Amino acid sequence: LIQLYMPLNILGFAYREIKQGLTDTEAMFTLLGEPQEVADAPEATPLVAGPGALAFEDVRFAYRPDRQILKGISFAVPPGRTLAIVGPTGAGKSTISRLLFRFYDTTGGRILVDGQPIERVTQHSLRAAIGVVPQDTVLFNDTIRYNIAYGRPGASEEEVVQAAKLAQVHDFVMRLPDGYRTMVGERGLKLSGGEKQRVAIARTILKDPRILILDEATSALDTRTEQEIQAALRQVSANRTTLVIAHRLSTVVEADEIIVLQDGRIAERGTHAVLIAADGLYAEMWRRQSEAVAMAEAAAAAQVAA
Ligand code: ATP
User: Fold this and answer.
1) Which of 17, 41, 177, 200 is the most exposed place for a label (fewest CB within 10 A)?
2) ipTM associated with this complex
3) What is the pTM (predicted TM-score) of this model?
């Protein structure tokens, strides 16, 4: 009986371990609010490590056959560079990041990471190479430490603190009653959007991916929070190939290339200076946002004076 029991016991242990792994992956997908629709190709091999070059080649995509969302998108981001994607709501900006993370397969064209078509590599290896700082991070019902260390399970206390410092969230954590042991999430302490985003940045710094997707928050932030987040973002995107889904144009000024999406196509592309000089769609968006910012600042100043 013992001979029979032992392997079963080991199996039970292995099952729990695997289940835990699956649960965490599923939890992550649920947290990201994305379905899992793609499967590994039978001959899929792990992504071969490289410097992090990224390319979209005539990428087409539709969620439903009757409505084309991306109608032939091409761009290349050299290793370590930043590409910003701007455009009106519904233009397909987030769809580009979902395709890169391979939540869906393209309906035409190719996406290449370090020269390798992403549908031919294992999803696990692809997702290990890409870090995502989402617009609205949902935290696990666990400690702050767990939520940061999730980026690299097994990270030491020192590594977690170092990442939190770079992400400008360490001082905030130190002011909490239980520091890094403070419970957060729906059933714990609720953090503001900016605080949650900095936790996500710390998590990504620990994960140390070669490609980064930043999905900027649409919500307006106060100037101080905005500055802290900008500093955190600069840390995480330094020397990393970065795709920014930009909602606030202030963050795209420094991008190496900006693409303006409109109706599933690239309407304009270039650096900030080039696009301003072109005086087209981007220049118009820039003018409108600058006016909105100036008005908000004037209103805030009037409130202080009153
Ligand atoms: P925003 O700036 O508002 O975030 P976006 O440019 O990121 O917009 P996407 O989220 O990429 O836009 O969406 C592009 C289009 O695809 C939208 O019209 C949207 O309604 C549609 N869409 C997005 N997700 C799905 C889905 N899962 N199923 C069907 N249509 C979808």
Assistant:
1) 177
2) 0.97
3) 0.83
Cα separation, 114 vs 59, whole angstroms: 17
Q: How far apart are CA 228 and CA 225, in angstroms?
A: 5
Instruction: State both tokens at 213.
Output: 């997707």
Sorted by sequence, the CB contacts under 8 Å of residue 287 that are 6+ apart come out as none
Kind and range of the H or E run holding 245: strand 241-245
User: Nearest Cα to 164, choosing from 145, 178, 191?
Assistant: 145
Nearest CA to ligand 1 atom 15: 90
- Least Cα distance to 123 among 2, 206, 36 occurs for 36
d(CA 116, CA 106): 15
The alpha carbon of 272 and the centre of ligand 1 are apart by a number of angstroms equal to: 25
Query: From ligand 1's centre to the CA of 96, what distance in Å?
Result: 10
Ligand 1 within 6 A of 129 CB? no
Rounded distance between C-alpha atoms, residue 64 and residue 80, angstroms: 34
259 touches ligand 1 (CB under 6 Å): no
* Ligand 1 center to 33 CA (angstroms): 13
> Phi/psi of residue 160, each to 5°?
-65, -45
Helix (H) or strand (E) holding 70: strand 67-77
Distance between CA atoms of residues 8 and 209, nearest Å: 38
CB of 93 shorter than 6 A to ligand 1: yes
* Rg, the chain, Cα only: 21
Kindly report, residue by residue over 195-224, the tens digit of the pLDDT. 998 999 999 999 999 999 998 766 666 777
List 245's β-bridge partners, or say none: 85, 215
State the Cα–Cα distance between residues 74 and 86, nearest whole angstrom: 15
